[in-house]
Design a protein that fits this description.
This protein has helices spanning 23-33, 94-107, 123-131, 142-147, 187-207, 225-259, 337-343, 346-352, 387-392; strands at 3-5, 14-16, 38-49, 56-62, 65-66, 78-87, 157-164, 177-184, 220-221, 265-272, 274-281, 284-291, 293-295, 301-304, 312-317, 326-328, 357-358, 398-411. The protein has 9 helices and 18 strands. The two termini are 34 Å apart. The radius of gyration is 21 Å and the shape is globular. It is 28% helix and 27% strand. By secondary structure, the protein is of the alpha+beta class. The model has no long low-confidence stretch (mean pLDDT 96).
Amino acid sequence: MKWEKFEEGYSIPVKSWCADCEEGALKQAENLARHPALFGHVALMPDAHQGYGMPIGGVVAVDNAVIPAAVGVDIGCGMIATETDIPAARFADMSFRRAFQEKLKERIPVGEGVSHRVTQNWEGFEEYTANNGMRSNLWPSKLDRMNLGSLGGGNHFIELQKTTALDGNGDPEGGSKVWLMIHSGSRNLGKRIEEHYHKLADKMCTRYHVALADPDLAFLPIEEPDGHHYVTDMFFALRYAKENRRRMMEAMKETLAEFVPEVNFIRTIDIHHNYAAFEEHFGKKVCVHRKGATSAKLDEIGIIPGSMGTASYIVRGLGNPDSFMSCSHGAGRRMSRVAASLNLTVEECDQAMAGIVCERWHSYKGFNRKAKGRLDLSEAPQAYKDIEDVIASELDLVEPLVRLVPLASLKG
């Protein structure tokens, strides 16, 4: 832990693993420290940066309530990674890697608003509909059925990676091997669930004159029907997100087997980093909200990805109680999407991606007028914190086990 802060007006302290916490994220952490339903303290992971209501990279324990914005709109967003026995040398040729990536794009819909052309079958849809009455009119929708097994946009990615020595110098003992990694979530389903329940929470807090430092932190008591329904629907979104990643990973494994028929798949790791879970901490049963944070219980295996062009890590949790047994979910942004597109150059971004198969930069499609007509450089490595610094800041939370660098990176 880097620092702890407790000031007048706080109900609980803020504990941080950030070497340098940006002003916006710190302000949001202070708002959380004044929240009437929080327990223990606010924990900021080393990748923390400003989000909506709660910092991305934040962890809080809530007493018998849920805060929709403290989970976020991409409910169930997370990572899946598969280890193989294929020597990385098999993918030394850039054209071979590009052919692999092009084949993936034929199997997996990639990009914001891009889905399968037909609805996808999954028993989870029927189970939810059978058990949840009128809420089944809200979700799952036809869109959810078409989105299943698709990547989405933003910072979601599919990567072909290779192992390196943990210090980054050379290959690990036994030689460099290929890994497959995907970052994705519940697509539009999680967004609709969060927005629906946030409105209900805001109405409830307004009706009962609940004092909040930020209305985005409106909450629902779990014993109330709306709170109970949020938990049920959140768990459905978590299950959907996991199935979404599983389907994409199966497509990725099938594609790899076409290119390298002798491949063996050794293990698969799958984790969420936008969710709430009922756990016991400091002797109390609480609802832990992890927004852009990963569970890191003792000996739990997790994934901490970097940005495109930089290393990712497979880690082992150390079960540190001060972080509510959590760790970072990635590198974390150091520049907003608009700032990256306005201030970075194509030349420096291309240089950062040298030797890695990737798509070219697309036109900026956001709403900022200054960025109109520019290329969208928001996912370039320079827009993110240094993953090595992030990992170094949380060695009391996790033990790095495997270091991976990208060979091919496919962004949405």
